[in-house]
């Protein structure tokens, strides 16, 4: 026996003991040889396949075009490496990584094909599972934030027609978790994922985190973007039954248009998010499309907002007091509660730097103020508290429920006056009017603050349940005149307010002359540094000789 030639039986023994499946065919595709690993992989015995075509393993998974390219490459004498999904004798599918090598004869023609393969079914399933976990949110089965961004950015490279990016935030979902538990909350989110994808099948929908979602879909115009976005909102607003109990969700949506509002996804996301904030703050039932005026949110405002939330979370936020002097009774029995947070410079008012229309600001702020009221009444039993409330909370059922709850727990409504700023309330007055009447019926008095800074007419106030009119400091200073004679406009406002049954408060009283002017105007109460500088405690008592207590 030549040392350079192995006997055929040795070669066959080697092939049979290989861990990889081996299949050899002639150029016509007739099976000439299979090893034991092939038998174990496919379930076919050797005698069942010899002389037959490998197509008996076909699963139907691959297309005709796949096989056409495969044979074109093989018959050209080029080895093929790739993955096949085939069918075993028992009908089950398996995935194999296969190398098919063309073997030429002495004439240079492809005479044989040698295919070696290994079973990668479990490996591919594990890989697919990892890819799924890396791509999809496990709770909602929507794309996760990273995958959503990657997919949309991939589309942006070649898209040449209008698109819309919708950003959605669930309203008061934290309350659902707090009241019903996180397990119920998770069930709701899972159902929500199914509904969002079904509502707009052509959209790319992703969960951006927590209770926030995004959708990317074709939209040739703003009207189409809003109409399709409304389908998503309607899917959210439908009642969901979880563990036998109905849950009604609401969402707020902001929409940015491509290319009108940005050429990159980061621009579109930021602007859709801004529009969503506006939709949430104004409780809009429709998608809100971005407009340039939303660009006013500054890093400085955001830093103060972060400081506000840190102070609230740490229990460092507090109320300071500025007492009001009742000129009819000559008493200090009223005090406005002013919000403050600590800083390296001492207690500061962060609100002058913040956009109070942002729900992330006003919701936390107003809840803090109301939560303090009852304990303050217990601490200062002779005091009537003036509490600043943003108008957005007055249209929030959850906030009103909190207020009713505090009344049930002992909050004395006759010793609470809620202040709302004229400038802030003006655009929303008709919307929040029903809430104002409900508060009035509850026994809570209302004050319109900073009058003169906006454009609300006194005659319009006749239709609202307002008890007090607070003339703003700036308006007073601009019209206080000289030589102790106030400008006619001030006297006219006070007289008209009294005719309407309103008590008048004059802000900005900072000198003895200002106080004398207030008396001449016949206002009911005054407020300012001459009366009382804001302090951690209110001043309560009788006025002494026209001087502050």
Helix/strand/pairing category: alpha/beta
Instruction: Write the CATH homologous superfamily of the largest domain.
Output: EAL domain
Distance between the termini: 124 Å
Biggest sheet statistics? 8 strands, mixed, barrel
| Portion in strands | 15-25%
Report the CATH architecture of the largest domain.
Answer: Alpha-Beta Barrel
Give the proportion of residues in helices: 25-40%
Within the largest sheet, what's the order of strands? 13-14-16-17-18-19-20-21
The number of helical segments is 19
What does this structure look like?
Pfam families: EAL, GGDEF, PAS. This protein is α/β, with parallel strands linked by helices and 549 residues long. It has three domains: 8-120, Beta-Lactamase (2-Layer Sandwich), CATH 3.30.450; 136-296, Reverse transcriptase/Diguanylate cyclase domain (Alpha-Beta Plaits, 2-Layer Sandwich); 319-335 and 362-542, TIM Barrel (Alpha-Beta Barrel), CATH 3.20.20. It contains 19 helices and 22 strands. A hairpin with a 4-residue loop joins strand 13 (318-326) and strand 14. The longest helix has 21 residues, at 359-379.
Which secondary structure elements does this structure contain, and how are they paired or packed?
Elements (H helix, E strand, L loop, with lengths): L7 H10 L3 E6 L4 E4 L1 H7 L3 H4 L14 H12 L4 E8 L5 E12 L5 E10 L1 H15 L9 H12 L6 E8 L2 H8 L1 H18 L4 E6 L2 E7 L3 H16 L1 E4 L2 E4 L2 E8 L6 H17 L6 E2 L9 H16 L3 E9 L4 E13 L2 E3 L10 H21 L4 E5 L8 H12 L7 E6 H4 L3 H14 L2 E7 L6 H4 L6 E4 L1 H7 L8 H12 L3 E5 L4 H10 L3 E3 L13 E2 L7
Parallel strand pairs: 11-12, 14-16, 16-17, 17-18, 18-19, 19-20, 20-21
Antiparallel strand pairs: 1-2, 1-5, 3-4, 4-5, 6-8, 6-11, 7-8, 9-10, 13-14, 13-21, 14-15, 14-22
Helix pairs in contact: 7-8, 8-9, 11-12, 12-13
């Amino acid at each position: 026996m030549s040392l350079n030639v192995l006997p055929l039986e040795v070669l066959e023994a080697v092939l049979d003991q290989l861990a990889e499946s081996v299949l050899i065919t002639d150029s016509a595709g007739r099976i000439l040889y299979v090893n034991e690993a092939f038998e174990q992989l496919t379930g076919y015995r050797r005698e069942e396949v010899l002389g037959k075509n490998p197509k008996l393993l076909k699963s139907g998974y691959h297309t005709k075009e796949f096989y056409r390219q495969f044979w074109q490459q093989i018959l050209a004498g080029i080895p093929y490496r790739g993955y096949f999904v085939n069918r075993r004798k028992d009908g089950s599918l398996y995935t194999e990584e296969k190398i098919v090598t063309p073997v030429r004869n002495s004439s240079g023609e492809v005479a044989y094909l040698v295919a070696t393969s290994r079973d990668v079914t479990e490996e591919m399933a594990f890989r697919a599972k990892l890819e799924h976990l890396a791509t999809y949110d496990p709770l909602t089965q929507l794309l996760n934030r990273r995958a959503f961004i990657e997919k949309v950015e991939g589309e942006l490279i070649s898209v040449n027609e209008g698109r819309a990016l919708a950003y959605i935030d669930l309203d008061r979902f934290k309350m659902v978790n707090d009241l019903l538990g996180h397990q119920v909350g998770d069930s709701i989110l899972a159902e929500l994922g199914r509904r969002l994808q079904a509502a707009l099948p052509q959209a790319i929908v992703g969960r951006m985190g927590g209770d926030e979602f995004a959708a990317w879909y074709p939209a040739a115009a703003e009207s189409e973007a809003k109409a399709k976005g409304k389908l998503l909102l309607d899917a959210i607003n439908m009642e969901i039954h979880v563990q036998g109990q109905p849950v009604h969700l609401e969402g707020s949506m902001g929409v940015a248009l491509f290319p009108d509002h940005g050429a990159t996804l980061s621009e579109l996301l930021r602007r859709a998010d801004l529009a969503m904030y506006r939709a949430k703050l104004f409780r809009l039932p429709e998608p809100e499309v971005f407009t340039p005026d939303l660009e006013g949110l500054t890093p400085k405002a955001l830093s103060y907002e972060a400081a506000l939330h840190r102070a609230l979370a740490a229990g460092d936020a507090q109320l300071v007091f500025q007492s009001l002097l009742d000129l009819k009774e000559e008493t200090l029995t009223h005090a406005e509660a002013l919000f403050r947070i600590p800083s390296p410079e001492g207690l500061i008012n962060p609100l002058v730097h913040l956009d109070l229309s942002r729900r992330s600001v006003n919701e936390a702020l107003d809840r803090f103020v109301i939560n303090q009221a009852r304990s303050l009444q217990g601490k200062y039993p002779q005091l009537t508290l003036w509490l600043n409330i943003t108008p957005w909370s007055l249209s929030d059922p959850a906030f009103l429920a909190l207020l009713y709850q505090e009344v049930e727990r002992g909050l004395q409504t006759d010793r609470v006056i809620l202040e709302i700023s004229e400038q802030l309330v003006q655009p929303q007055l008709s919307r929040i009017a029903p809430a104002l009447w409900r508060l009035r019926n509850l026994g809570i008095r209302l004050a319109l603050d900073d009058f003169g800074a906006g454009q609300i007419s006194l005659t319009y106030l006749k239709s609202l349940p307002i008890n007090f009119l607070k003339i703003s400091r700036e308006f007073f200073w601009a019209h206080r005149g000289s030589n102790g004679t106030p400008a006619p406009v001030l006297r006219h406002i006070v007289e008209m307010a009294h005719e309407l049954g309103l008590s008048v408060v004059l802000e900005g009283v900072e000198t003895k002359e200002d106080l004398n002017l207030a008396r001449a105007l016949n206002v009911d109460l005054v407020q300012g540094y001459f009366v009382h500088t804001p302090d951690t405690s209110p001043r309560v008592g009788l006025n002494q000789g026209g001087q502050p207590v």
